[in-house]
Amino acid sequence: MQIAVNAIFLQKTSLEGYGWFVQEVFKRLVNQHPEHEFIFVFDRPYNESFVFAKNVTPVVVKPAARHIFSFKYWYDLKAPMALKKFQPAIWVQPYGFCSLTTKTPQLMVVHDLAFLHYPKFISWHQRWYYQRFTPKFLKKAKQIVTVSEFSKQDILLHYPVEANKLSVVHGAAREGFDPLDWGSKDATKASYADGREYFLFVGGVHPRKNLMNLLKAFSLFKKWQHSNMKLLVVGRLAWQYGDIVEKLKTYKYREDVVMLNYVSEQTLTQLTASAYALVYPSFFEGFGLPILEAMQSGVPVITSNTSSMPEIAGEAALFASPDDPDAIAKQLLLIYKDESAREKLIEAGKLRAASFSWDDTANKFWEAILKTVEN
User: Fold this and answer.
1) Of all residues in the chain, what percent carry a pLDDT higher than 90?
2) How high is the pLDDT of residue 240?
3) Phi, psi values for residue 207, rounded to 5°
4) What's the CA gap between 305 and 320, in Å, rounded?
5) SS3 of the chain
6) Taking a C-beta distance cutoff of 8 angstroms, is the pair 285, 308 a contact?
7) Which pTM was predicted?
8) What is the pLDDT of residue 239?
9) Is pLDDT above 80 for 248?
10) Which burial class, exposed, middle or buried, applies to 140 when counting CB atoms under 10 A from its CB (0-12, 13-18, 19+)?
């Protein structure tokens, strides 16, 4: 069987949520199923590290699909034309879009419906594209995978999708996110935080990730505690970041906020495992991978009480309303002052992270592939 995979987010220098999911799933599937050929469809030159095995055939289809007009051209014209010579049994679409013209059965992954709940956090043309075409994509796809029970129910609530067409396939923490010894932690703190303890924020600098309210909460924490704790922000400047950049210029504790932009995976694992706590106050997430990666690293987590985050974190995290900086600050204070509670969260987090597995994810995704082909 030939299996086409949309691989446009497998980019070595900017591998983020969608790309990590595809990498972790398909580096397993191509090795577990050498009898099948996997056609990875890229929209630009690719890194050879993404050709996971001999049964992967990389195909580059230009132009790059990175805005709404190029999406339509790439998905509906260029990529289907390129795949005609392969005649794949299925085309996997992992990014919430699919082709409306192809006759190849498609398995589409929808991570979340954030554009419905927070439309102001994306540009008007992206909002228009999502609102206009998501119903068509959901209808066109033969099967749909989503990454949490929350997202599944959200899709069923807003769109006329048959429940048997939709399956939940969770992600998991990646390999390499493990606890560090004290010496390694101290070295990381010395390199990035002037040797101090720090709270860690991981995610693009984007309104939905809620860095602004975290800064307000951090300010309250500093006011109440008079601590030398730092806040490290790891993530690229993604969208509508101007307000945050301007606020930092006059922010009272700006010397204690370290903006690190996008970092390598090795650096991220070190920063995560060396943190005093991960603070993940996003307004809305379909899954929330940094939660599990921090837990697996032996780091306690403070996260939001909204969307999928309580489902993913279970009882192994502290929660706060993302709209309430005071509530976030109180959780920062609690985890800072109560070492016993912090240790309990660390142990509970390790157990919680261990209940998610990329091997299980890959197996369930393979079931969805077979179901798509059978249908």
Assistant:
1) 82
2) 55
3) -55, -35
4) 6
5) CEEEEECCCCCHHHCCHHHHHHHHHHHHHHHHCCCCEEEEEECCCCCHHHCCCCCEEEEECCCCCCCHHHHHHHHHHHHHHHHCCCCCCEEEECCCCCCCCCCCCEEEECCCCHHHHCHHHCCHHHHHHHHHHHHHHHHHCCEEEECCHHHHHHHHHHCCCCHHHEEECCCCCCCCCCCCCHHHHHHHHHHHCCCCCEEEEECCECHHHCHHHHHHHHHHHHHHHCCCCEEEEECCECCCCHHHHHHHHHCCCHHHEEEEECCCHHHHHHHHHCCCEEEECCCCCCCCHHHHHHHHCCCCEEEECCCCHHHHHCCCCEEECCCCHHHHHHHHHHHHHCHHHHHHHHHHHHHHHHCCCHHHHHHHHHHHHHHHHHC
6) yes
7) 0.92
8) 55
9) no
10) middle
In this structure, the chain runs to a length of 375
Residue 226 has a pLDDT of 87
Using pLDDT thresholds of 50, 70 and 90, give the confidence band for residue 88.
Answer: very high
For residue 277, give the nearest of 202, 199, 178, 173 by alpha carbon. Answer: 199
Determine the pLDDT at residue 34: 96
What domains, with CATH codes, occur in the chain? 2-172+357-374 (3.40.50.2000), 182-354 (3.40.50.2000)
Two structure tokens written together for 22: 């595809």
pLDDT at 12 over 90: no
End-to-end C-alpha distance for the chain, whole angstroms: 15
What tokens were used for 128?
A: 């228009």
Cβ contact 162:138 at 8 Å: no
Name beta bridge partners: 318.
302
Taking the CA atoms of 239, 242, 243 and 248 in sequence, report the sign of the dihedral they define. Answer: positive
Structure tokens at 250: 């006059």
Q: How far is residue 330's CA from residue 336's CA, in Å, rounded to a whole number?
A: 10
